[in-house]
Design brief:
By secondary structure, the protein is an alpha+beta fold. It is built from 12 helices and 11 strands. The strands form 2 sheets. It has a 6-stranded antiparallel β-sheet with strand order 8-7-6-11-10-9, sandwiched between helices. The relative contact order is 0.09. Bound molecules: methionine sulfoxide.
Length: 318
């Protein structure tokens, strides 16, 4: 497959070789070098020449210099993680169609990402300066993921929504899922919402306690690669332990776990949240991630809130 993520930031940092009063002159060289991208970028954001000159005037050499240093030390790794997060959900983004490419570079710090029509395909340009100014450069893989997702939904530019705000926004979509008549459908919809919108959720599914056995979990609705673990006895694996202890389990590095059932060698971290109804485990929400240390307090409380709502629903509907 072609390279989904490209880094052309070097060309932007050339700016630093010029006297500040000649930055606009360099901007035009940069524009010509990346024809038609920069031109289209300016058009998409309605940036007049006058405004561009002002933006360049307001840029601080020292700030740009710091960004360049930081970028040089993390660019390799960040580019790899961007590409990994996006290709992991290639089916969602229809990567085979080669409809778009992601370009990491410096722009004018106006928007975090802008999608423009390039010579061959769409180019989703990510502005490192915009992220740097908001101290979000280290979140680049999530920014890139959101940019692609929103591009596929028809947006042409936007700003990154950090995890905490993203979860607050997603809560509406979770509530919509509860409008479904059957709980199974609600769970299906929840899996879909989580899988699509959260970059580091690579497998999202429910396990439900087998009502005839009460000490075994059965695979319920899920999104992601099929798993061989369709039945898990209480106590076995992360899922079984979470069920037995009726507590959320967060495993930041699955390779360090001894009582663990592997679904895919790509999985690096996992969270399992039980759904407890009248002191009994009704089921649980299980999420795998291809990234180490994926789950923090935001994930935990958001997912526990979802499971609590499912529990209420079960109690009410019986
Ligand atoms: N890893 C889980 C098994 C379920 S799969 O992740 C889908 C476990 O150790 O229980």
């Amino acid at each position: 497959m072609r390279k989904v993520v490209q880094n052309v930031a070097d060309d932007f940092f050339e700016l630093l070789r010029y006297d500040k009063n000649r930055w606009f002159e360099y901007w035009k060289i940069y524009r010509a070098k990346h024809e038609p991208l920069i031109d289209e970028y300016e058009k998409t954001l309605n940036l007049s020449e006058e405004w561009i000159v002002t933006l360049l005037k307001n840029m601080e050499r020292r700030n740009l210099d710091r960004l360049m240093q930081r970028w040089y030390s993390i660019s390799h790794e960040q580019k790899y993680h961007c590409s990994r997060l996006i290709t992991a959900k290639h089916e969602l983004f229809e990567l085979k169609q080669e409809e778009f490419v992601i370009v990491l570079t410096g722009l004018l710090g106006v928007k975090d990402w802008v999608a423009v029509k390039g010579k061959r395909e769409w180019v989703i340009m990510i502005d490192l300066l915009s992220l740097w100014n908001k101290q979000q450069l280290d979140e680049l893989p999530h920014v890139a993921y959101q940019a692609v997702l929103n591009f596929k939904r028809g947006e042409r530019y936007g700003d990154y929504v950090p995890k905490k705000e993203l979860f607050a926004k997603l809560w509406n979509k979770i509530e919509e899922a509860f409008a479904q008549k059957e709980l199974g459908k609600t769970m299906e919809q929840i899996c879909k919402v989580l899988y699509e919108n959260v970059p580091h959720y690579n497998w999202v599914g429910f396990y439900l306690t087998d009502p005839s056995k009460r000490d075994e979990l059965v695979l319920g609705p899920f999104v992601g690669e099929p798993t061989e673990h369709v039945r898990i006895p209480f106590g076995r694996g992360i899922c079984g332990q979470a069920a037995e202890r009726r507590a959320t389990f967060v495993v930041q590095d699955v390779s360090k776990e001894t009582n663990y059932l592997s679904c895919s060698p790509k999985v690096e971290s996992e969270i399992v949240v039980p759904i407890v109804v009248n002191e009994e485990v009704f089921g649980e929400l299980d999420i795998d991630s291809h990234v180490l240390n994926s789950f923090d307090e935001n994930d935990k409380s958001f997912l526990e809130r979802i499971c609590e709502k499912i529990s209420q629903e079960v109690r009410v509907k019986g």
